[in-house]
Write the structure tokens for this entry.
Amino acid sequence: MIFENRFDAGEKLAKELQEYKNKKDVVIVAIPRGALQIGAVLAKRLNLPMDVVFTKKLAFPGRSELAIGYVSESDIFVDPIIIERANIPESYIYQEAKKIKDLLRQRYSKYYQDIHPIELKNKTIILVDDGIATGNTIKGAIEALRNKNVKEIVVAVPVVAEDSLLEINALADKVVYLDVPENLMAIGQFYRNFDQVDDDDAITLLKESR
């Protein structure tokens, strides 16, 4: 399945989430930045508020496309098997995690400069991303949300890698998706337009979806 852009993916995904429409205890939570385009469509179609969760993958040294773990607002996780096999030093993990934590704090301040976070405790969360490849980003987001004592986490994505789907099914309460391709190399291959979304545009979408 090929999507025109993230807005198109959001429209298609909204049709699969109608059971949550107008529910007062449900909140859309998007992972900045691209997922806010999808989240904004879901918020509009389902008449729900939207918030964000900050998480970022911890990259393999010199290979930014490969993940060895994730960093969220509240947690750091690394894959011990990869760390041992690749002999990645603790100093690298510490330095990179600190950089990411600093970046996430900066983003937090920027996104919440004019608005406040939504109280997520005891809420059902529809966690949105524009796709799942390795799953490290979404795992970090799930962990961050669990730490906020949410009631339920429904992961909603247009496309997800088969291997990652098994993992995410075990971590989330429910996973809603449109496509599970056999050979998912990069999320962008399933969008005709996969332009990056900058923070200013993402923040505008967040403000409009309250």
Notes: The mean pLDDT is 95. DSSP finds seven helices and eight strands in the chain. Residues 6-55+120-208 form a domain with the Rossmann fold fold (CATH 3.40.50.2020). The two ends are 30 Å apart (CA to CA).
